[in-house]
Amino acid sequence: MNRNSTLNVVVETGGSQVVAHAGLHALGQFADRVGLGSSLSAAIPWTGERAPGHDRGKVLTHAALMLAAGGEACTDIEFLACQDRLFGDVCSDSTLYRTMRAITPQVLDGLRTQTATVRQGMWRRMAATTGTAMVVLDIDASLVEIHSENKAGTGPTYRGGFGFHPMFCFADGTGEALAAMLRPGNAGSNTVVDHLQLLDEAVAQLPVEIATGHHTGDDASSVNRAVQIRADSAGCTEGFVHGCRARNVGFAVVARANASIHAGISRIHATDPDGRWHTARRSAGAVAVRSEVAEITDLVNMTAWPAGTRLIVRREHLHPGAQRSLFPSDIYRYWGHYTDSTGDPVQLDWHMRQHAHVEDHIKRLKDSGLERFPFSNLDANRAWLQLICVAADLVRWFQAVCCTGHLATAQPKRLRWTLWHTPARIVKRAGSVIIRIIDAWPTADELLTAYERIHQLA
Fold first, then answer.
1. DSSP label at 367?
2. Within-domain flag for 28
3. Domain span at 395
4. What is the mean pLDDT of residues 249-257?
5. Do 101 and 171 lie in a common domain?
6. pLDDT one-digit tens code per residue, 375-394
7. Rg (CA), the chain
8. Nearest partner of 337 among 328, 347, 348, judged by Cα
9. DSSP reduced 3-state for 425
10. For residues 193 and 243, is the Cβ–Cβ distance under 8 A?
11. Helices 357-365, 378-402: inter-axial angle, 10-degree rounding
12. I need a labelling partner for 397 at 20 to 30 A (CA). Which of 182, 277, 313, 324 fits?
């Protein structure tokens, strides 16, 4: 019996007709078809008398492809540069480095504006601008460890580490990273100014027909589509929710422990122990037999909150590994949230629990370059963070428009193994360059379908 895991072969260089990223080429063609590179290029001015050797929009698009493929530093662009038959003239790592260092805050604002233009076109292609359903945004922050004190803008974290504490705002329906803010590791979790700035940047990324009416001072009658922001307890501040109301944005924020909530729940047990509690729903919609939901708006002091705010509380029987409760209890774990939404408390509780999607979105970013900031300059690292978000959104758009089945929801690691790193041969026939995918590659049919859908894009 042969117990070897490989065959004996002779290894040599010279494979000029072989490529290793046929699927990544599809992502690049998709980016070109939706105009990502040309849009980004329009935001970066020339700094010399003549046009640069490498168009800066193309440089950033190649960098986004590199991040999607698993790269995490400027030097990783070399793995695209060696495959000019697929990606053309790719810049060097030093050119990418200089490009990122040259992105000033003003240029970064321009890049965000151009990204919003591309996003608007993508939402229309995905039919996300149609209908009347509420657009839900999710805010959350995460720690990124940095093992160097030479990077500007870093700081100690509340977990005893050191690095950044970036905050993000995602579109729940599509998983896109609409806005990101790079903050030091010791930045406060419940900073009202940061939350409202991030919300404004996220609204600016929405298509015009959705964003209308959701800017500071807009009249409520101008709203075309409802927008709601969800946040954990870091967003449970009066300044933030009143700021949301000023923008005609609904809110749902996790409640913090306080004596008023404790007293309100105690009143339920004293006056109506069975009438208020209703069986909760699980994430998939099934009945949660060990969890119940109640509204206690009338049992707590809500004078500091905007008119129409409600307090929904959930209780679960204690179990191993249960998370922190609103207050100590030997029987239940209590959890609640404030919201200005109308509807059944059980449905509102289920809706708020969908905020957990944000953890998956952040995980995708951490799998696509967020774990490493390669520059010592703060502005360059802010630009890097924006590039990470653009790369992640490009992948989400590709999945929504060009993929079917499991690839439409696959995580970055699976996309790399099954799609981006597809090996193939390049041959010429009748003047055309042809990519021949290796025989028996598991996702060959899905990749061909993706190319067909790219060619059908208007």
1. I
2. yes
3. 18-107+374-456
4. 93
5. no
6. 999 999 999 999 999 999 99
7. 25
8. 348
9. strand
10. no
11. 120
12. 182
Which neighbouring-strand residues pair with 155? 163
Q: What is the DSSP letter of 315?
A: E
CB atoms within 10 A of CB 432: 7
| Assigned token pair, 52 | 């640069």
Whether 266 and 159 share a structural domain: yes
Exposed e or buried b for every residue in 387-422, given b needs 16+ CB within 10 A? bbbbbbbbbbbbbbbbbeeebeebebeebbebbbeb
For residues 139 and 221, membership in a common domain is answered with yes
Query: Residue 102 is encoded by which pair of tokens?
Result: 């040259």
Residue-wise pLDDT for 36-63, tens only, equals 999 999 998 877 666 677 889 999 999 9
DSSP annotation string for 210-226: HHTT-STT--GGG-SS-
Domain boundary among 361, 390, 420: 361
Tokens of 341: 């939404």
Residue 412, in any domain of the structure: yes
Question: Of 333, 361, 389, which one is at a domain's C-terminal end?
Answer: 361
pTM of the model: 0.92
> Do residues 240 and 380 both lie within one domain?
no
Q: Give dist(CA 19, CA 83) in Å, integer.
A: 7
Q: How far apart are CA 371 and CA 11, in angstroms?
A: 34
Q: What CATH number does the domain containing 228 carry?
A: 3.90.350.10
Identify whether 12 is part of a domain.
no
